[in-house]
Amino acid sequence: MYRSLIIITFTLILLACGGKPANKYATAADGEEIYKNRCVVCHGIDGKLGLNGSKDLTVSKVTEAERIVQITKGKNTMTPFEGILTPEEIKAVAAYSMTLTAQ
Ligand code: HEC
Question: Which pTM does this prediction carry?
Answer without folding.
Answer: 0.81
